Amino acid sequence: MVATAAGVAGCSDNGSGDGSGGDDEDGDETDAGTPTATPEETEENVETPEERDEPEGPTDPDEPADVQNPKQAVDDWLSNTKNYDGNINGQIAETDVSIGVGVDDTSGSTFAFGKPAIRVTTGTQIQWIWQDPNNAHNVRERNGLFGSGDPVTSSGKTFTVTLTEPGVYLYKCSNHGGALGMRGAIIVEDEQTLSGYPKVDEWLSDYSEYDGRLTDRTGEASVDVKVGARSPNGQNRSFDPVAILVDQGTEIVFDWSGRGGTHDVTWKNDTFEPSDNVRDASYTYSVTMDEPGVYLYYCRGDRPYNGRGAVVVR
User: Fold this and answer.
1) What are the UniProt keywords, alphabetically (predicted)?
2) pTM to 2 decimals?
């Protein structure tokens, strides 16, 4: 069983009154098997028609989406989701995660999930909490792996699943998951594929270039790390490699690329003195790791863009 679902708390499901109207935009089929047309979003102050969804029921009840590029799958699924900014919210260190249902989608409407994209590990419990007393919403996984039932209006209804299989779970609201973009995504990773160091996994969980594995540089006396390396979004705001495993006594040499503006290396908890904040491509900064442990660092200017790195000394 991929996901175990818990029942509703705080509100009953009766009286959903959701009123079907337009169709879902992602080519879902009706009972007759005919794709339906995509509705246009209404103008402000005009009542929004609710979107007809295909009937509930699993099409692949045993496995979540198995994709080669989970981030791309999430980006594609959420391409019309107003409150998705391209970042996947790392929740790797959490065993319980809450997601609001019917929250502000950044346009003043309540057609969004509170965390549109998250990354968790197997066994994490996900709880959706309804927050919109005016519009009927539900949660339905694209392949029918889990679902909260018919859309309801509520403040307080909850729906809970425990995700036990790794993969990409793509879900939406049946009423508003088409043209209005009320969608969500969950990337579930198997715990044993992660680094084995929860501090590192949590620190780098929002890094699309971090795959949960440390770059093994043990046996080397000196290791270079590029500062201002190119990141997947095309900006030079990353460290490369982003997470490394080294031996005691290894010297870490940070080498500036000269791209992406000024950069620095600042250590969490002030473990070492920080570097200068410069752009100069000839600038280098080094530290020697004499004690075993987990060392986390960041660029002060790039930290809002996930400019972070980690060193594990064994």
Assistant:
1) Copper, Metal-binding
2) 0.51
